[in-house]
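Reopening this ticket.

The earlier resolution said the output was attached, but the attachment link was broken on my side. Pasting everything inline this time so it's all in one place.
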Amino acid sequence: MREDVIRAVEAHFNGLGARDVSASPFHEDIEFVGPMAPPIKGAQTVRAVFSGFFPTIKGIHIHRHIVDGEWCATVFDFDTTYGIIP
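Inline output:
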């Protein structure tokens, strides 16, 4: 189970780094809650919002995953045109 959770999370982060989230394993009812905007609901909407970040993404460096059952928190750095965002 732990490996499946990490594989799903890394598929998403690898997609962001490659500027292609079409393979991100989002549930159709996903709700993304971030620190700088109201919650975003629905797989298509979340993919569209993430796609809007593509011009600024240079890469992603994953430091570690903290997994508890089906939940995962990932510590990572976003390498962007604005600098590195931890």
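Reporter confirms the inline version is readable. Strands lie at 31-32, 40-41, 57-68, 71-80, 83-85. The longest helix spans residues 2-17.
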